Amino acid sequence: xxxxxxxxxxxxxxxxxxxxxxxxxxxxxxxxxxxxxxxxxxxxxxxxxxxxxxxxxxxxxxxxxxxxxxxxxxxxxxxxxxxxxxxxxxxxxxxxxxxxxxxxxxxxxxxxxxxxx
Length: 117
Fold this sequence. Notes:
Shape: globular
Number of strands: 0
Oligomer: single chain
Structural class: mainly alpha
């Protein structure tokens, strides 16, 4: 079965920060000390992906300025709730759960070479 991945370009500084927090979590004995850094990396990745796949596609499709403002405001309002809940959840995770999330993010931003059968 062919695996397909969605990808979007990451700013170099974000890519470096994400890789750094993944490495920190993978190598640390106390992974919980990096929970907030992981949360911020997830938040920043979400912002870039949402902008790339949703906001920019709406702009390209010619969505009017008023509708774009409405979309952006709705995203901001909902994001506040998600951030409040998400931060608490990630801060409460154990080392193994944080490692799993870091590994999933790592596999999501890493291009795997195709294996020829």
